[in-house]
Amino acid sequence: MATTTTMSEVGEFPLISSIVKDLPMGRAVTLGPGDDGAVFQVDGSVVVSTDVLVEEVHFRRRWSTPTDVGRKAVAVNVSDIEAMGAVPVALVVGFSAPGDLPASWAREFMAGMAGEAEKAGVSLVGGDTTAGPVITIAVSVIGQTAGLAPVRRDGAVPGDEVAVIGQLGLAAAGLVLLGRGFRSPRAAVSAQRCPEVPYGQGRVAAQAGAHAMIDISDGLLADLGHIAEQSGFAIDVTTSALDIAEPVRTVGMATGMDPLTWVLAGGEDHALAATFSPGGVPDGWRVIGRVLPPDEVADPTVLVDGQPWERERGWTHFHS
Amino acid sequence: MATTTTMSEVGEFPLISSIVKDLPMGRAVTLGPGDDGAVFQVDGSVVVSTDVLVEEVHFRRRWSTPTDVGRKAVAVNVSDIEAMGAVPVALVVGFSAPGDLPASWAREFMAGMAGEAEKAGVSLVGGDTTAGPVITIAVSVIGQTAGLAPVRRDGAVPGDEVAVIGQLGLAAAGLVLLGRGFRSPRAAVSAQRCPEVPYGQGRVAAQAGAHAMIDISDGLLADLGHIAEQSGFAIDVTTSALDIAEPVRTVGMATGMDPLTWVLAGGEDHALAATFSPGGVPDGWRVIGRVLPPDEVADPTVLVDGQPWERERGWTHFHS
């Protein structure tokens, strides 16, 4: 009789070993997994960020494959390093899961992580696996500044053009679809399962001299709000400049909902938003607004077409 | 009427802000919490390690104060950097907790982390807080090699002296006490709540030329087993050389259990074990065994007084 091998049966240590074995390591890594710590070299200063994904808060097993979840765990974290204009180098993962989780789930999850890590150009150098009541994934990514100053949230100045790269509203549209039991349009559903992070574009922005940058995890308005607040200037978003992707429009029409809400307030797409001197916006980035001088709007807030936005500004994940 | 403010009421973002505000940062940190990533400088290569603590697996709220848990989360992680002979620099924390957790618990936990981080000489540079069914804490610590090669597990050679520094068996004795509803001897109970890590001694061992090193998280025999296995040589532990601390003996007598079991197989004390050339053991370290030549014992195992150890070798935490 075929049986499912669970985490409890495999045990904590063999699972870790089987996972870390044969992982490809970047050239910077001088000691990979299997010791008390991993060792690697960095060029310049270190940039670090951490994010936690919890089952039923950030993903659902019935909606996402283990590969999706593994990819997402890498993507959302690397995105933070991109948003600093830095180069991701290495990541570590803390994984806790119930004892009755099929070991195959954990293995496929790790395969997803490994695949996305390769895509993002980062080495998975270590981890810790333990028991817990739900799947909880904590990833920390370490990057290097490699000769460029980190791009912070507080550097926007009046007159800057605000530009974005990556998807907006696609993951939010996908969430609405999954919540109603639909599986298409596929692009939206896939984006909710794992965002397509514009890898390398954070570095492009830094090289272009971006003044401020953030990754859009909570929603365009909410995250631009962080730039506005920390820089001390208002931002005005021009909705006619926003690209509402075709699948987002389709979901809007099918559900009778306004797709602009997803573009402005939907999170989890992990697009990048940055501000540049006029004319300094790199190729491929879309200008969607500008940073206002304080004599025009004194309050460091985010306006939409010059007006306050009365609807939701950001995203707080689904709740079970 | 006095009420308890919960995590749900405070919300995710205000809590993070209130936690990271006013944290002291080391001189190496050029950008602290509050952006997409924190930035700091390292001397030499980067060493990274991650550990996860789950409520009811690694700690119990009825046994430990939030401060204890916060201290422990730092201590067990920094210990891994120490075990590489590196200098801890920065740490990040992923914290997930139920919405009905009193916000004061999270604040006291963070205060515990901050206090232990200061003691360990490491800066708490960032974090992520999210909802989850039980308290889950994932800490990643980043250290620097600062001019010394990392001390790995695989460098032990025949003839080496095996030495330890820090407590052995104290946390295991404390666990037995807590499990039976006792609160003394205090030293044992405290060690279970948060180990006293011998901060700085990993660096001392590296400077003394340690060949191999590990932190004892799973139990002396289990962890020496990793050195033996990865180095390819057997290790013989001499029980008469072991120091059984007075509180460990006391708990043994009170419970009728053999305290040697806790010293050899009890985990969670986060003592350090290392191997050195004969005569090269630093002050304060206790020699407890030696690395055997393959013609004496071919199998890279750990013996106790020259014999196989038939009882448990290591530790897998309590289970609820």
Automatic annotation (TrEMBL), chains A, B:
Domain PurM-like C-terminal: 158-258
Matches recorded under CDD domains: ThiL
Domain (PurM-like N-terminal) ranges: 34-144
Pathway it works in: Cofactor biosynthesis; thiamine diphosphate biosynthesis; thiamine diphosphate from thiamine phosphate: step 1/1
Name of the top EC class for this enzyme: transferase
Binding site for ATP: G127, D128, R153, S217
Binding site for Mg(2+) 5: D218
UniProt-listed Enzyme Commission number(s): 2.7.4.16
Signal peptide stretch: none
Residues where Mg(2+) 4 binds: D36, S49, D80
Binding sites annotated in the UniProt record for Mg(2+) 2: D51, D80
InterPro entries, alphabetized: PurM-like_C_dom, PurM-like_C_sf, PurM-like_N, PurM-like_N_sf, ThiL-like
Coiled coil: none
Residue sites binding Mg(2+) 1 per the record: T50, D51, D128
Note: Reaction mechanism of ThiL seems to utilize a direct, inline transfer of the gamma-phosphate of ATP to TMP rather than a phosphorylated enzyme intermediate.
Function: Catalyzes the ATP-dependent phosphorylation of thiamine-monophosphate (TMP) to form thiamine-pyrophosphate (TPP), the active form of vitamin B1.
Name of the molecule in the record: Thiamine-monophosphate kinase
